[in-house]
Amino acid sequence: MSALIRQIVWGLALGIISFIALTLSYFFVFPSLQLSDLWKKELMDIPFIVFSFSFSVVLGLVFGTVSGVYWRKQFEAVDAWLFQLAEGQKPEIDANQAVTEVSSISSRIGTLHKQITEKAMLSQRLATEKAEEKESRIQEIISQERNRLARELHDSVSQQLFAASMLMSAINETKAPADDRESKQLKMVEEMIHQSQLEMRALLLHLRPVALKGKCLQEGIEELLLELKQKVTMEIKWKVEPFPLDKGVEDHLFRILQESVSNTLRHSKANQLEVLLIERDDNVIMRVVDDGIGFNVKEAKAGSYGLQNMHERAGEIGGTLKIVSVEKKGTRLEVKVPILHAGGEDHD
User: Fold this and answer.
1) Cβ pair 232, 201 in contact under 8 A
2) Tell me, what's the pLDDT at 346?
3) Phi-psi domain of 331 (left: phi exceeds 0; alpha: psi -120 through 50; beta: other)
4) For 178, which of 77, 104, 154, 192 is 20 to 30 Å away at the CA?
5) What is the pLDDT confidence band of residue 128, given thresholds at 50, 70 and 90?
6) pLDDT in tens, 255-314
7) CA distance 334 to 190
């Protein structure tokens, strides 16, 4: 039974009870009054007993209907609040409720929504922390595996290539030039071994962790180039000025440098490599120059993931990357990144 019908029934019952009470009060006040007298007396040409009964019933029905409509609205409001709560929405509760009971319910629903929201935020935070912890653990495992592969390649394949290179070099130096064809083939084998060494060093450079790991950019560049200088025959020069940079900018510039040096080792056949890192006019400039065979920049950019990756990294830190390459004369890569000072403060 709905609240409206229930209140109408209660109103009708109240009207009948009121009629009975009114009739009995007449007999109590006027003991000599007979029931027939109430039928004979008229009000607006209607027998008094009929009029009082009709009036009581109508009044009870009106009261029941009004109260039923009112309570139905109150229950509908509570139902709407619970529906919004179930849907994850904030219940639209009127703080000034006329009925104390409904006001208490609305207060409890508001408190329940606050608790649900806080628990949802806690669950999301825990999920985020768990995902970050998992991602960090995966990255650590990947870094360890990359280091392991780099060590194994350096201790086995790289050492074997170095030994083969030394052996071929010794054979070519001691062998009498009796057969030009055989000498050319041996020289070609030596060059292939040398190129394989460069490819291996470039691969080891990729396998190394790309993060600076507590070092500033300048320290990372010097350490990388010093280690490289001990392993390759090309002449390596660098000029690195000391100045502070944001960690994100340093990481991206270091990764661009690694990619550029790797490409130089693998493809340029260069004899000289120069690296420059300076600050000019609130811009950090990193330049990598080699004297190798060069390449067609437009064709290489369309098909090279490495070049695209370097351009994307430069764009992510608000910088620009330009590559100028002339065939048989070398390649120059330049990254320019603006240095942004917080609050517009002057940079000392």
Assistant:
1) yes
2) 45
3) beta
4) 192
5) confident
6) 899 889 888 887 888 899 999 999 998 899 999 999 999 888 877 665 577 788 899 989
7) 33
Task: Report pLDDT digits (tens) over 208-233.
Answer: 655 566 788 999 899 888 888 877 77
d(CA 320, CA 332): 14
Distances 76 to 69, 71, 85, 114, 219 between C-alpha atoms, Å: 10, 8, 14, 22, 70
Token duo for residue 14: 């109240």
Cα(7)–Cα(17) distance, rounded to whole angstroms? Answer: 15
Residue 266: other Cβ atoms inside 10 A: 17
| 118: confidence class by pLDDT, cuts 50, 70, 90 | confident
Tokens of 189: 């084998």
Q: What is the pLDDT of residue 240?
A: 94
Delimit the domains of the chain by residue range: 3-92, 214-348
Residues 4-28: what's their mean pLDDT? 78
Q: Which amino acid is residue 57, in one-letter code?
A: V
The CATH architecture annotation of domain 214-348 reads 2-Layer Sandwich (3.30)
Contact 264, 275 (CB under 8 A): no
Write phi, then psi, for 276 (nearest 5 degrees): -130, 130
Strand duo 272-280 + 283-290: pairing: antiparallel
